[in-house]
């Protein structure tokens, strides 16, 4: 049996980060975690690009545009949607999750580092607190998926 799995070597990979500015304090920590992960796994500064969107709702359009350029081996969507007292949370979180369709349509891996939390404490726990940094996790998944897809060519 032949087994395929991606490595965690980011050297030479071109990675795009797409980050939502809304809840920027939390999202900036996700971005920092993602960049730290990429650097520690061998990515060069020149191979990492960051695009800021106004909010999580706008992530899919920018991810789609970046995927269509052909410049990226993987994309990482980062954001934070905190539940409020209205259904607005459901619409924004649902739209942000559509970044996964971009991967299916373009073949460019897109990882989902968008926090969807009940409150700001949960967001803090997942952006560098006691539950780790989901930005790091999403970047690591992007590296591994990009390498796996390259291995399967």
Molecular structure report:
The protein is α/β, with parallel strands linked by helices and 153 residues long. The protein has a single domain (15-145), classed as Rossmann fold, CATH 3.40.50.960. It has 6 helices and 6 strands, in the order βαβαβααβαββα. The strands form 2 sheets. The chain has a 4-stranded parallel beta sheet, sandwiched between helices. It has a two-stranded antiparallel sheet with strand order 5-6. α2 (59-68) packs parallel to α4 (99-106). It is globular and about 50 Å long.
Strand content: 15-25%
Largest sheet: 4 strands, parallel
- Low-confidence segments, ≥5 residues, pLDDT <50? none
According to CATH, what is the topology? Rossmann fold
Secondary structure tally, helices: 6
CATH class: Alpha Beta
The general outline is globular
Q: Percent helix among the residues?
A: 40-55%
DSSP E strands, number:
6
| Domains (count) | 1
State the CATH superfamily name: Lumazine/riboflavin synthase
Return the structural class. Answer: alpha/beta
Query: Taking Cα atoms only, what radius of gyration do you get, to the nearest Å?
Result: 15 Å
CATH-derived architecture = 3-Layer(aba) Sandwich
Strand order of the largest sheet: 2-1-3-4
Calculate the mean pLDDT score and round it.
96
C-alpha termini separation: 18 Å
SSE succession: EHEHEHHEHEEH
